[in-house]
Amino acid sequence: MRLRLFQRHWVAFVESTFLSLVRLPKSNTDLLEEIAPDVERLYNRHLDAPRLWYPHEQIDWGSGQDFGTHPWSASDYPLADGVRSAIYVNLLTEDNLPYYTSTLLSNAPANHPIREWNLQWTMEENRHSMVMRDWVHITRCIDPTLLEDGRRVQMSTGEVPQPDTFADLICYVAFQERATQIAHRNTGAHLPKDDKMGRNVLALIAGDETKHYLFYRDLAAAGFAIDPSSMMMAAARQVVNFAMPGTGIPAFTRHAVRIAREGIYGLTQFVKDVLSPVLELWDVDHLAGLTAEAEKAREELDRTIAKLVQMVERMAQKAAAETA
Length: 324
Ligand SMILES: [Fe+2]
Ligand SMILES: [Fe+2]
Fold this sequence. Notes:
This protein has helices spanning 2-21, 28-48, 81-95, 97-106, 113-139, 144-157, 166-189, 196-226, 228-240, 252-261, 267-282, 292-323. By secondary structure, the chain is an all-alpha fold.
């Protein structure tokens, strides 16, 4: 009898301790309000390390040729298909900026510092498509007619992800900024050594993306400290459903396959260079105070990562066997 009473007390003690440690998810509005000081802190950090560069100074204007007298030909700039696809997809993704701005601002209440950040972000992103297009036209590295046709198609659909909550949004953008940083960096590394202009342009863009990534990565880390359960569920949703920006681009899948085959960006980079470092920094494996639903989300995230890692390993083995 005494033992049973002890057991009951023990169970009650464990339950009350556990429940007091569980942190209930906050509303979208509460998260936005509580994260405001972190937005200001990270925005100021961003401004403290300015990256001022001028698109017009990166281009060797004298090396260009008139397209009327010298129509574009693939032999103007010999390049592997996968690298051409990467330039095409990366540039069109940058062109689609207005729709990203609109999504980001729709999650930014009036007078919230995230609004100011979004405007700064837009200002910085806008120069990426400008400078890339100048470089593309001067060097003729991809077909300008194909590029413009793609821009018209993509921008007239305005297809961009629309995360449901602020927690989803900052998780998605952290992954996406890291992914674009890797894609620009690896594309630059695949350019011929003598295209110093292109290598420099893509390095400058990748540098901007690094700063954007650091902002969102650390903002999401602050979100995990404020509301671990909502952030855990959001991170899991975003990993399970993650798609690279650019799905509205004509023949996107064909280009994505070529880009991955070239080793520029694909599942391997997504797992090794995007998911692993970001999730490790957020320390998702050791988050405490999760609700039962958030614990389930973490388990789903674990299963998804394990599956992706397996796929990457199988792909590497297949590639090694083909090489052999
Ligand atoms: Fe960009
Ligand atoms: Fe960016």
